[in-house]
Amino acid sequence: MIDRTMVQSMASMGITIPGEVRFAFRSATNPQYTYLRDIVTEANMHQTLAKAYAATQANRNDVVFITQEHQQLLATLDWAKYNVHLIGLGGMPGAAFQYPRFGQSDDFTPVITQSQWWGTWANMRISHGRGAAGNLVGVNLTGHYNAWKNIHLYSPGHATEGAVGATMMSLSLAGGNNYFEGCTLGLDTVLRAAANSVININTSGVCNVFKGCRIVMYQSAGTPYFIWCASGASVQNRWTYFEDCTFIAYSTNWGTPLTVAIGYNYSGDGHRLIFKDCGFAGVTDLIASGYENNVQMIGGNTYISADEYTGLTLTPDTTA
Q1: Residues 256-314 pLDDT 10s
Q2: pTM across the whole model
Q3: For the CA atoms of 261, 253, 168, 131, what is the dihedral angle to 10 degrees?
Q4: Average pLDDT of the chain?
Q5: Closest by alpha carbon to 168, among 192, 188, 189?
Q6: How many Cα atoms occupy the beta-carbon half-sphere of 49 within 13 Å?
Q7: Half-sphere exposure of 248 (CA within 13 A, CB side)
Q8: Domain boundaries, the chain
Q9: How far is it, in rounded angstroms, from Cα 208 to Cα 226?
């Protein structure tokens, strides 16, 4: 049994005719649980996110709601069932620091894999990192045709993970044709001190779209990247599209800008990054010399120089 408010909430996410509705909660004293138990069948209430997911079925538009608590995963979870959605019972818009959230209570990687197709995730925070160098990946998105809305990928949540090199990434973007809107990826309160990345484009991570997102970090070295493009024939073609997105690399007193915002693990032309009406702050250069053709700028993109702190319009072949 679900009420009209729940149906309207799902409709705002594009989920118009839900299948089974499940609720993941942590504490039976939570006010949302107290309310929900009176209007939802007890069999549809689950005290962990993993149990709620296990109770769903693929391809019937099932929905898992997370109550306004900090859920804990005991082990990595593969969200693999097609057309099963994950929604936090929080407010929107404004992705950063959402209260419906889940993270890891032990050391493992990734925190969660989204290998499904046709799923919607919305209104929550996903926390990655707890102080172990082996916690390498926040979300491993290997599926296709999924949508994220109002998600905060809070990564890395500890300086130990932030000090790991290229194998540490907040979002491993290995699947294609996914859509991100109003999301915050990264955070500006925990140090990154090595050549890791917020978004790592790899495997089949092509034709993904980011709209109105913030990609942020707090770094003590110039070596991290907002975006890293891995090698491999399947990812060296096609494109990734960013519209109205802001990239902010904060360092103490803005004194340690990123050397480059974007890194590539292959030479010459390849995967195109297309930016429309985006802005970059806290970087010395957008991309290394010789890779300029991999970046296409459309509209009123701005770039804030670490030395001049003045907005400059970028053209496709200009990086400074």
Answers
A1: 999 999 999 887 678 999 999 999 999 999 999 888 889 999 988 876 554 433 333 34
A2: 0.90
A3: -170
A4: 88
A5: 192
A6: 29
A7: 14
A8: 93-313
A9: 16
